[in-house]
Amino acid sequence: MTHIALENVSFGYTASPVIRDISLTVDSGEYVGLIGPNGSGKSTLLRLILGLHDPDDGTATLFGQPAGAFVDRARVGYVAQDVTENTKRMPITVAEVVLMGRFPHAGFGRITTEDRELAREALRTVGIEHLADRRITKLSGGQRQRAYIARALAGEADLLVLDEPTVGVDAESVDAFFGLLDALNDDGMTILLVEHDIGAVLEHAGRVVCLNRELYFDGPPVEFAESDALDRAYGTNVRRGEGVTIA
């Protein structure tokens, strides 16, 4: 089943397009890593995918429906880049954050014992069940990211969309975080990951999409590494080497 479909999509905040003529599909079970230099349109593309913007040209669909009109939002688990900033003043526990994922499913607004068990199972899946009673404000950046992934799992999301989730997260936690995404994908979760660490994308994602206002590459990591797409998309802004990162 196709979760995301963009066909000849262009969009701009002014007369100049931010992205041009993008065609892209993400099918069930895929793990897609989206990369590109700063200002390449990655976040704009995510907003189009999520239906937060309507394309100027072309079409964007989620689960076969126009993205802007898609209403079953529980099917999409979105973890924003600034999620750690947004939670700094939230006086609620980790368990309460994860339980929010059940609200769209709660009959007559009532949380049931089954809802609470599904939330606990989600916490176990991401490895932070022991933090359930801790305030979300007291968690590290990596732990907060796991809490928001658990919320998506509790909501029975079919698609996990992450916008540079490892920004500000320590190296050890980053390794564990990518291990979690690998495990979720192995269990069938569809993942779209925007990530600045190209090396991590090449190591973990099953497919690489390289963007700089237009598509420069869409295919397997091995083929990307052997292509000239990196140089063409990033120009002189790329630093090569082990664990390729953006300069």
From TrEMBL:
This is Cobalamin import ATP-binding protein BtuD. The keyword Protein biosynthesis does not apply. Residues 4-237 form the ABC transporter domain. GO terms for molecular function: ABC-type vitamin B12 transporter activity; ATP binding; ATP hydrolysis activity. Keywords: ATP-binding, Nucleotide-binding, Transport. InterPro entries: AAA+_ATPase, ABC_transporter-like_ATP-bd, Metal_Ion_Import_ABC, P-loop_NTPase. Belongs to the ABC transporter superfamily. It comes from Natronomonas salsuginis. SMART domains: AAA. Required for corrinoid utilization. Probably part of the ABC transporter complex BtuCDF involved in cobalamin (vitamin B12) import. Probably responsible for energy coupling to the transport system. It catalyses: an R-cob(III)alamin(out) + ATP + H2O = an R-cob(III)alamin(in) + ADP + phosphate + H(+).
